[in-house]
Automatic annotation (TrEMBL):
Protein name in UniProt: Polyisoprenoid-binding protein
SUPFAM superfamilies: YceI-like
Signal peptide: 1-21
InterPro entries, A to Z: Lipid/polyisoprenoid-bd_YceI, TTHA0802/YceI-like_sf
Organism: Geomesophilobacter sediminis
């Protein structure tokens, strides 16, 4: 009986914390990873990775306990030009046959303002893992969709050097400079569905 009472008390004490913590699955149909990179030193080429999945745990009372894990299908890269996309999937760039996924696993979440978070974690591209910081704009509150699911959304961004991940293909231009810039600007548009305990 004492053990039962202890369990009840522990559960009651935990309820305030549990109410502020929840797990979400990324909705692949309403999420994408966008990027842009300098082309021929005169313009930016933009594209997206259309296939993304993952899980997000959010602890409102202790954000440092929150975590994010994302997996991107590297072959889903789409810049709107078939020939260019084929080249991006080739061994010159992503080499999707050898490295089919791009992953991000968070290590730490830090609040940097009322509406912003920094998510520090490990990004793996082309078999190379490097630390990056995602600058997250205010995670939305929950909204119920027509089917009864609770959803949240967030936008995050970061900047990487593609050379850091072994993506070194390039060609020099007669007028100076190179065909493809080194800096890649990345934006994540993520919609999440709250997981209901079974």
């Amino acid at each position: 009986m004492k053990r039962y009472l202890s369990l009840v008390v522990a559960l009651v004490l935990a309820l305030p914390t549990l109410a502020f913590a929840a797990s979400y699955n990324i909705d692949p149909d309403h999420s994408n990873i966008g990027f842009k990179v300098r082309h021929l030193m005169v313009s930016n080429v933009k594209g997206v990775f259309g296939k993304v999945q993952g899980a997000v745990f959010i602890d409102e009372k202790d954000l440092t306990r929150s975590n994010v894990n994302v997996t991107i299908d590297a072959s889903s890269v789409d810049t709107g030009v078939v020939k260019r996309d084929t080249h991006l999937r080739s061994p010159d760039f992503l080499d999707v046959a050898k490295y089919p996924t791009i992953t991000f696993a968070s290590r730490k979440v830090v609040r940097v303002g009322k509406e912003r978070l920094n998510v520090l974690g490990d990004l793996t591209i082309h078999g190379v893992t490097k630390p990056v910081v995602l600058d997250v704009e205010g995670v939305s509150g929950e909204s119920k969709d027509p089917w009864g699911n609770l959803r949240r959304g967030a936008t995050a961004s970061t900047k990487i050097s593609r050379k850091d991940f072994g993506l070194v293909w390039n060609k020099s231009l007669e007028t100076g400079g190179v065909v493809v810039g080194d800096e890649v600007f990345i934006t994540l548009e993520v919609e999440m569905i709250k997981q209901v305990p079974k």
